[in-house]
Amino acid sequence: MTIDTFNHDTLKVVREQLNLVLEVLSEGDLAGVTFEVGNMSFSNNSVKIGLVGRTEGAKADMSDLVARMARMHGLACTEKGGYKIVDYHPKKIKYPFIIDTDDGRHLKMSPRQAAAKFGLVTRIGV
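Given the sequence above, the corresponding structure tokens read:
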């Protein structure tokens, strides 16, 4: 396929081909690293492509961070009623909690909103 100009349709093809190449790369010399094609921005004759590389243990580290920060903010749980805390951004002071819902939406929440949604741990004898 020859690409003369970039548009949404050609970028879908580019993303698919890049994913195939990155999959082969992850199985070869860079085993243990998973690559993902990120956001793409384009004009007629150029495209900027974001690339994210993660070690295989990165998801476990993120779930540990989420659990630690939920405990630090006094949250009773990290999953309730179709909502699940999947990420925590310490630099985003207003809305550090990232939530996924059962219907596929991604939400951001403040610590106060997260406490209202997931409940607080009751402390007896404090």
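Strands lie at 33-42, 47-55, 79-80, 83-88, 97-101, 106-109. Try to locate this feature in the token string yourself.
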